[in-house]
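How a chain folds remains the central question behind the approach discussed here. For one protein, we set the task of working out the structure tokens from the amino acid sequence alone. The sequence in question and its structure tokens are set out directly beneath this paragraph.

_____
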Amino acid sequence: MTASATATVIAFPAPEAERVTRDSRPLRLITCGSVDDGKSTLIGRLLWDTKAVKEDQAATLKRDSSGKQNDLGLPDFALLLDGLQAEREQGITIDVAYRYFSTDRRSFIVADTPGHEQYTRNMATGASTADLAVLLVDARVGLLEQTRRHATIATLMGIRQFVLAVNKIDLTGYDRTRFEEISHEFRELALSLGVKQVTAIPVSALKGENVVYDGRASMPWYEGPTLVETLEKATVRSNQTVGFRLPVQRVSRPGESFRGYQGTVAGGAVKPGDSVVVLPSGMIANVKQIVTFDLVRNAAVAGDAITLVLDRQVDVSRGDMIVSLDSQPMTGRKFDAQIVALQPDGIEPGKRYWLKSGSRRQRVTVAPTSQLDLKSGKWSAIETLSMNAIGKVALTFDEQAIFDTYEQNRTTGAFILIDPDTHNTVAGGMITGRHSELGGIHKDDERVVLSLPADLAEKLMATAIFSERRHDAEVRHTSAGRAAELLSELDG
């Protein structure tokens, strides 16, 4: 008898696959920095190593890289970004190039922006919609003026997350001391700009070290994340810091029984039953229905294109804004802003421009007050702004204007200036707050200007204390209504 051998097979539980939580919101980022710091090569490497380059693109890339291949036998990654003939001929980036890639954790929209000063306006365009900036520095050269310029512009555009990619670290022999020197210098710059969230990474974009794959073999002293790991954990800027905002793009009246207001929600959320205000008229209504092209919805959030139906007949036109009753934007005729001048003629003080914000276009007079010195990082008083200059201005509108600050809402706090003579866009800007003619009285001011109704001005000038300080103040007459409006702006 043959004993039958039996065996008990114990099934080991299969190792549980690492759960990957995927963020459904794409992260928008820019690469910036001085020319030749390797921005296009870095993005090309990101696309190549995340398998975002399709087979036909790879074949074309290898063909076009003929004669330009490096000693690693890799294609010229910069050609993935430099689409314009002029860019390929000069080996520089001129326009903003957008590319898409994804990992298991999230998707990304990356903008490769120009490094040359003359294309600063394109860099500012890319930064205006970004959540994060990857600032490249050549490890052999360190921080340059253009590095400081781009960091400043990105900050002005509201970006608060920076990745400092110290590129070409392989050309320094993977010098840890050099990496730490540059990181320290940039962190000081970032702090002076009010940015605290900086991740510094030593990178070789060409070799792909610390981009998607770690570079521990060459840099065992670096224990931080790779670039793509940092991007996966970055946060997306929220449009929820203020209440509901719907800039009205069109009034829809397909028949007598329907009247809706169409636009893209620029902030917050809304649902049927919510009370809203139509600005600038100030009329109040309740939301009756939210309609999209294919269904009736029970709510809408920022980014949704909707038609809003109100429960009563109110006067609403294109350019008006429908907002939350309990969280309204600023209204007024004078605002402070920061702008980037985009045209060779710069900004003329006192000239009337068209200001376009969303679907609203208004006449505005621009008065430059100061300009940022990108070498020293200090603001100095000026009267004109030249091309590519970053300046603070006072905006005076012919009629009531509606804004949030750019910090609160990047859609309702941003604008462009259009020259009415040439129809060229001469500047891009961000609202920083409401301007007050009364303003504050600073110790350095030699004279104080007071705008008062005539009867009040006469009473003031008749007082003994004013007579004693007559040379310290200037009184300008204004109407009682205008004075009340100024006080209302201050109270608001």
Observations:
- The first strand starts at residue 27 and ends at 33.
- Residues 1-15, 438-446 have pLDDT under 50 and may be disordered.
- The radius of gyration is 28 Å.
- The longest helix spans residues 176-192.
